[in-house]
Design a protein that fits this description.
The chain has 225 residues and is α/β, with parallel strands linked by helices. Helices cover 57% and strands 10% of the residues.
């Protein structure tokens, strides 16, 4: 029985980064009744932002995420001061345990979770449990991961280059359109403006006050065009 004189123990704060709402709901329903405070993020970028602001005690992360995947999310999380010591545990049905541990994750749990064992698994990581891979395997995984990052970066550069070419072509088309529009508008307006000047000057005959007002309105409209 807990001593009523002792202050209540703070709830471990768990951040779960997962795009599947059913998976998030399951983890929340398992952990919250067992004394955990669960935060949720639906993609890697949102998860990183929430981790920086909320300082969770442990981060659960799926591998298949929209935008940046779980591997890159974990790598970025490790680079932030204050999060470098926070345990990161992969919770996924499509991932690689060796790669996950090699890039800095501390544990790997496969889905579907064992509802009875899951809270104790997380408490073990909160108490300092860390899973490891052997040195040679870790170096192999890191080489492969680095190569995949390079390939993804090269693909992104190609996409950006193609997009830049399309944007330049669109800008040229816009400029050509505006030049053509200006030319087509100026062609009929030039004689209109000229004849208006002649009429308003009185060289083509005297104008009544009403005619003068009409010509002034026409002149204002042509100037605006």
């Amino acid at each position: 029985m807990a001593d009523p004189a002792l202050p209540p123990q703070p709830q471990p704060r768990i951040l779960y980064i997962e795009d599947n709402p059913e998976s998030r709901a399951l983890v929340r329903s398992v952990l919250e009744p067992r004394g955990f405070d669960v935060l949720e993020a639906s993609d890697g970028i949102a998860g990183i932002d929430l981790a920086i602001s909320a300082h969770p005690d442990l981060i659960l992360c799926d591998i298949q995420l929209p935008g940046i995947d779980g591997y890159e999310t974990a790598t970025r999380l490790r680079s932030y001061k204050g999060l470098d010591g926070c345990p990161i545990v992969v919770l996924t049905s499509h991932g690689d345990r060796g790669l996950s541990l090699s890039i800095g994750c501390d544990g790997y749990i496969e889905k579907p979770i064992d509802v009875e064992k899951f809270p104790q698994q997380l408490r073990a990581f909160l108490k300092g449990k860390r899973e490891k891979v052997r040195g040679p395997e870790e170096r192999r995984y890191l080489r492969e991961y680095s190569q995949s990052l390079v390939e993804r970066l090269e693909a992104t550069v190609r996409e950006l280059t193609a997009a830049n070419i399309r944007l330049r072509a669109a800008a040229r088309s816009k400029n050509e359109f505006m030049q053509n529009l200006s030319h087509e508008m100026a062609t009929p307006l030039t004689p209109i403006v000229g004849y208006l000047k002649i009429l308003r000057s009185g060289k083509a005959g005297e104008l009544s006050d009403q005619q003068q007002k009409i010509l002034e309105s026409v002149a204002m409209a042509s100037d605006r065009l």
